[in-house]
Amino acid sequence: MNEAARPPSILITIDVEDWFQVENFKSCIPYETWPSCELRVERNTHRLLDLMDSAELVAPDCRARTKADDRDGTTVLCRPRATFFVLAWIAERIPRLVREIQGRGHEIGSHGCTHKPCGAQSTQELWQDLTRSKKILEDIIGGEVAGFRAPCFSINERILERIRDAGYRYDSSYNSFRLHHRYGRLRCGENGNHTEVLSRPVEGLYELPVSNLCLGGRSFPWGGGAYFRLIPAGLFRSGVRSILRGRNAYVMYLHPWEIDPEQPRVRGASPTRRLRHYSNLGKTWPRMKRLVQVFSHCRFPTCGDYIAARNAEIEEVSCHRNPIAKSF
Hints:
With 328 residues, the protein is an alpha/beta fold. The chain has a single domain (9-317), classed as Alpha-Beta Barrel (TIM Barrel), CATH 3.20.20. The protein is built from eleven helices and twelve strands. The model is unreliable at 64-76 and 189-195 (pLDDT under 50).
């Protein structure tokens, strides 16, 4: 299938962590105090799940039949599917939430155990974080966890090799925005300059980067999170359209706490960090709902499904054009 014929894809990725686990508040809320904090992630994740269950897609190839439908020849519209990168600390305390996410048709990925940036961990600590979080999630869902999202997008080629060696088949941690000091760097270059979404910066592992907008050779943060809340909604959707025109796919990320304007306020954080965390929390939900409506003509696959579909399409075109991979 050529690019013109293939409907554009929007990949919604959710980093399942709670309001007290963010890097901006680490100095105010140390890890040891997490058990005493109010858990709000379950109710917020339910809202995101309900949003996707209520959305109707109209992409030309996005119709599905059920057994009941087959009897009268009618069709039902499919729903958006997302990838939820779950912090294992949350999964251990609310395993029912992980099972519900999977039960509603979404993909489970790992977000590590304690939200400590990968680059801040020793080789042994990183290995334990990668393998332990994977096992915790796989024991809960009774199946494979293939994807990983690094806290704070903190990756490089060495870290990707450890992710691969821990048994993951893809990573979605590269953010090409250069002005954020926590984001990692890869030799694959600026995300916005790529015409192909997938890459393999290290052998045996797919990289599915967060999407950014490339203008004048520079990468602007357009993948979601605080940028989704701070950039005017209409302008943000225009940027998404531009990314879809250039790459036919858009990868965005969000956190459950970003739809929760009633969350506790943290004292002691700097004004800049408070601004970054709390700005426009009340607008995230309606903006997300509107984005799904505006782009209902697109596919909304999970990361794993997108990789599998792209590989199949590439092989279908030609087995001699140096495909990304032969299978997923």
